[in-house]
Amino acid sequence: MLRNKEQDKRRWLDLAPGDPVIVIAGKDKGKQGEVLRTIPDQHKIVVKGVNILKRHEKAGQRRRGVQVAQGGIVDFEAPLDYSNVMLVCPHCGRPTRAKHTVLESGARVLVCRHCGEPYERVRKTEAQ
Fold this sequence. Notes:
Layout: H1 5-9, E1 20-23, E2 32-39, E3 44-47, E4 52-57, E5 62-63, E6 66-67, E7 72-77, E8 80-81, E9 85-88, E10 95-96, E11 98-102, E12 108-112, E13 118-119
Antiparallel strand pairs: 1-2, 1-9, 2-3, 3-8, 4-7, 5-6, 9-10, 11-12, 12-13
């Protein structure tokens, strides 16, 4: 069965900004960090402090719509493939594959495969 463009646009990821993850493959294997942003259509995520690359910037260049006043070498976090990270359970502290379940209230949640506890995201408010 061929996939059409509409199905590709509806792709989603289990991870969201603020979730703790550990890298399981690649040059940064074993490092832990927090998800900064997700790029679902490319199946990638950006993790804080992981996959740091250097970019040489000229003074006066525009990068992502922002004027760069001073040139030099800029360090930034590059996107990782979603399959190279695992969610870290906040209850047992172990990397886990998340299991999808539906609670009695009808809410869908992720559940840790090791301890069985539901994963509850901590929503960051703008005041923090």
